[in-house]
Amino acid sequence: MLKKWFSLSLSVVLAVVLSACGSNNSESSKEPAAASASSEAPSASASASAPAEKKVIKYWTDDRHDQEYIKELITQFNSSNPDNIEVELTVLSENYNQSVDIAFSSNQAPDVLRLKSANTALFYKKGYLAPLDDYLTGVNEGMKTKFSTGIIDDVNRFGGKLYSLPNTGLTLRLVYNKDLFEKAGITSPPVSLQEMVDDAKKITEAGKKEGIYGFALNFKNPKSAFDRSVREILSLSGHQGLGFDLKTGKFDFAPYAQVIEYYKQMYDEGSILPGAETLDIDPLRAQFAAGKIGMYLCFSTEPGVYKDQFPTDINWGGALAPSIDGTQLGTSEIVSAGTWLGISEKSANKDAAWKFMAYMYGDEIQTTYHEKGFGIAIVPSIAAKAKNPDIKGMEGFLVGKSDSLWPVSPNVTPEGLNYGDAFFKYMISGGDLPKITEDLNTRYNTALSTAVAKGDVNVTVLPDFDPSKP
After folding, report:
1. Cβ contact 133:141 at 8 Å
2. Of 59, 65, 181, 461, which residue is most buried, by most CB within 10 angstroms?
3. Secondary element (H or E) of residue 341
């Protein structure tokens, strides 16, 4: 784990450099030179022969914030690649992992998958991913060097083989409507959870007649909602955001339970948007863009969303999330760094899938992806030249002194409800929170012990871990 820690720290130092860059946005999305180098040019004899047989590559992703840009890139690739490769894009919703499981079990798996820190290890263990090492030789040897600082064991490299390459990371922030705050007499974003609860109540009281509420999250998938909100609050409060205690090497959901108490208070007071129990992230964004939500917590994808997907004229911004009691004992975790695309082990067209992947990982696309605000570049050569996104609201999401990468926590699947579903059930229905927390600790640590015994997970205890300097 220490090896991962130091590698991640190097990446974040490079990302921090971005805050000193300029802010002119580049709208270019031409095919990068790296993509051309990765594909062999057809010989004269090949040119004179019949066109190559079309190969259809299916690409699945659960990213919606960048889908219009990705569609443009795919259209360009389909019309310009010399190998008659056609990429078909499928954008899925919150049930992405389950959809991938079904696709592989029914022999309908895509050829290229969007990978994230939360699912790469799972997909690797299930045998869904093909290693990339054989493609990173010869003319592509330079790609391995380019991405070397982001090649990390148990993040994108497993068993000594590489399964994905890094692109960007994401910061987490409180997204808030400045006009609604002002209307409710609130002068600044909350710095403690009690302030957040109080502010949500004030905004609701001031705007309820107009259908305005103080707070919302995408509770259609409780774990997703908590992972983009509680995670941030806990990391700033000095706790690992997914319930794992790095100092003991065990799961401890007691800090998590503290945050849920405040969420329940907002729910009980009617400060959360009605119907949030079935709300997905895009409908939430549509409501926020319409000026109906005071605040929510989410990733640095949001400025791009409100520029392209849900254009809005509301006066909004991003700010550090509150900590539990207003005291910042830790740093805000940069998430989803180290992975982006992967090739399916079941693909019948792996070589064609790689050519599309190499195109997507080209310098110009990587640079433009950052400059359009879809993610924060962590690849050193890209971070060094990419300009800060010139997008409304992006200034609140840029990497600063309060942001860093944390050591990776183990990903296990317990028997029974996951922590998201268990805590959400308490939030809307009540119950014995200490008992719920103890049950989660027992089930997650049992699952952890089982995973360690099987060799699926490695745990390194960090008794001297400092959350203010991860």
Report:
1. no
2. 65
3. strand 341-344
Q: Report the SS3 class of residue 55.
A: strand
Q: Cβ–Cβ contacts within 10 Å for residue 455, how many?
A: 7
DSSP 153: B
Q: DSSP assignment of 270-324, as one string?
A: T-BPTTGGG--HHHHHHHHHTT-EEEEEEETTHHHIIIIIS---S-EEEEPPPBS
3-class secondary structure, 30: coil
Q: State whether the Cα torsion 94-362-335-400 is positive or negative.
A: negative
The tens digit of pLDDT for each residue in 230-255 reads 999 999 999 999 999 999 999 999 99
pLDDT higher than 70, residue 10: no
One-letter amino acid for residue 325 of the chain: D
Share of the chain above pLDDT 90, in %: 73
Return the number of other C-beta atoms located less than 10 Å from residue 418's C-beta. 17
The token pair that represents 331 in the structure block:
């740093």
pLDDT digit string, tens, across residues 292-327: 999 999 999 999 899 888 999 999 999 999 999 999
Question: For position 49, what pLDDT does the model report?
Answer: 56
Q: Are 282 and 64 in contact (CB under 8 A)?
A: yes
The dihedrals phi and psi of 130, each to the nearest 5 degrees, come to -100, 140
Confidence check: pLDDT of 6 > 70: no
For strand 293-299 and strand 213-215, is the pairing parallel, antiparallel, or unpaired?
Answer: parallel
Residue 373: predicted pLDDT: 86
Beta bridge mates, 318: 175
What is this structure's pTM? 0.77
C-alpha span between 207 and 270 (Å, rounded): 12
Cα–Cα dist 375/169, whole Å: 6
- Which residues lie closer than 8 Å to 128 by C-beta, 6 or more apart? 100, 104, 109, 113, 344, 345, 346
Classify burial at 164, counting beta carbons within 10 Å of its beta carbon; exposed 0-12, middle 13-18, buried 19 or more.
buried
| Helix runs in 93-229, H state only | 96-105, 120-125, 141-146, 178-183, 193-207, 222-227
Percent of the chain with pLDDT over 70: 89
Q: Find the length of the chain.
A: 470
Distance CA 360, CA 78 (A): 12
Give φ, ψ of 129 to 5 degrees.
Answer: -110, 145
Residue 470: both structure tokens together: 């991860």
pLDDT value at residue 20: 36
